[in-house]
Specification:
The chain is mainly α. It has one domain. It is built from 6 helices and no strands. The protein is elongated, with a radius of gyration of 19 Å. The relative contact order is 0.13.
């Protein structure tokens, strides 16, 4: 079942479709009401209790309600899409290495954990504690580190593939 999924998300048609859906999802985030996008904890690398209070106050009570819904719905779809995009690209670039697939899956796992943590912070606001904020911030930071690592591996794979193609062309011309 997993191999069929990986085969599906690695096709060019799927990669294009996932990329388009990922961008549509990103646009929906951008146009959420109550300035949610500009106050999303999900976009910060590290944050503390003061950041949480400032951001949650900035979006207000209605904004926090929308933020909870978007965290549970939209921000569950988003990591599924970017993880699928990474997995599909990694399958194409690193055919022999299954281990590399754990990198985007790690980002996905931390993103889902982050969504749960931020939802709990939202639902408990203004009664939030430092430990919960710390755990939420660590999940967010770990997500971003895993995404950055995935992007670096992707760039490495693309460069390596281009070099191999150039070498193959030179061999044919010799």
């Amino acid at each position: 079942m997993i191999s069929k999924y990986l085969e599906l998300v690695s096709t060019t048609k799927s990669q294009i479709t996932i990329f388009v859906l990922l961008n549509i999802c990103g646009l929906i985030f951008l146009f959420l009401p109550h300035n949610i996008f500009y106050n999303m904890l999900d976009l910060e690398l590290f944050y503390d209790k003061n950041n949480v209070i400032k951001n949650f106050n900035a979006i207000g009570s209605d904004g926090r309600s929308v933020y909870v819904l978007s965290s549970l719905l939209l921000d569950t779809i988003y990591p599924i899409l970017y993880t699928s995009l990474f997995l599909g690209a990694f399958v194409k670039l690193f055919k022999r290495s299954q281990t590399i697939l754990f990198l985007p899956l790690t980002a996905f796992s931390f993103d889902i954990l982050e969504n749960i943590q931020i939802t709990i912070l939202n639902l408990n606001f203004p009664n939030i504690n430092e430990t919960h904020v710390y755990l939420s911030s660590m999940a967010t930071s770990a997500k971003w580190i895993a995404i950055l690592a995935s992007m670096l591996v992707l760039i490495y794979g693309i460069i390596k593939k281009q070099k191999n193609r150039s070498a193959d062309v030179q061999k044919k011309n010799s």
